[in-house]
């Protein structure tokens, strides 16, 4: 009985942890795959609610060689004066904390959309990559139009 209760507590803890920062999209690289492209939908709209991280994608590369990365995203302004911080992070193991590789703040007030490219020319041995989009103003709405993520085997 104690094992059963312990298992239930563990499952609830895992469920809570996954809900506190759930990935909106997950892409698993297969074999020698080095590129992923994703076209956004209206479900990929972000707003600033309680200053939370609002949209993220996880890329699992499963490579055993050092990699460099290029990330390209297009964010489209829907309303307001958006400001979105685009952050590329990585980690080696499932239980590690993410390390920020690079980031850029997008100001959507001057136009309706922008393409952002984040590049890392320093080879590293990370296996998990995460891009997240954090809206920084309350009166805004933006949409992820597309994401392209490329790793290069060094």
Model description:
The protein has one helix spanning 2-20, and strands at residues 25-28, 35-39, 45-46, 55-60, 67-80, 83-91, 99-107, 113-124, 128-135, 140-153. With 154 residues, the protein is mainly β. It has a single domain, classed as Galactose-binding domain-like (Jelly Rolls), CATH 2.60.120. The strands form two sheets. The protein has a five-stranded mixed sheet with strand order 1-4-9-6-7, with no helix packed on it. Strands 2, 3, 5, 8 and 10 form a five-stranded antiparallel sheet that branches.
Strand content: over 45%
* Strand arrangement, major sheet: 1-4-9-6-7
Oligomeric nature of the chains: single chain
Helix/strand order = HEEEEEEEEEE
**Secondary structure category:** mainly beta
Output the radius of gyration.
Answer: 17 Å
Total number of helices: 1
CATH architecture: Sandwich
Mass-distribution shape: elongated
Number of domains: 1
CATH topology: Jelly Rolls
Poorly predicted segments? 4-21
Biggest beta-sheet profile: 5 strands, mixed
CATH homologous superfamily - what is it?
A: Galactose-binding domain-like
Strands, total number: 10
Helical residue percent band: 10-25%
Give the distance, in angstroms, between the N- and C-terminal Cα atoms.
52 Å
CATH class descriptor: Mainly Beta
| Global mean pLDDT | 82
């Amino acid at each position: 009985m104690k094992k059963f209760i312990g298992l239930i507590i563990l499952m609830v803890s895992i469920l809570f942890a996954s809900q506190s920062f759930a990935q909106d999209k997950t892409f698993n690289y297969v074999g020698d795959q080095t590129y992923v492209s994703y076209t956004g939908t209206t479900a990929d709209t972000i707003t600033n609610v309680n200053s939370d991280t609002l949209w993220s994608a996880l890329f699992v590369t499963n490579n055993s060689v050092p990699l460099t990365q290029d990330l390209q995203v297009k964010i489209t302004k829907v309303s307001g004066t958006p400001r979105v911080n685009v952050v590329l992070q990585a980690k080696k193991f499932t239980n590690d904390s993410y390390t920020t590789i690079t980031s850029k703040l997008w100001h959507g007030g001057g136009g309706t959309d922008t393409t952002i490219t984040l590049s890392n020319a320093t080879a590293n041995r990370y296996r998990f990559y995460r891009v997240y989009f954090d809206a920084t103003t309350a009166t805004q709405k933006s949409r992820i139009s597309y994401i392209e993520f490329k790793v290069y085997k060094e």
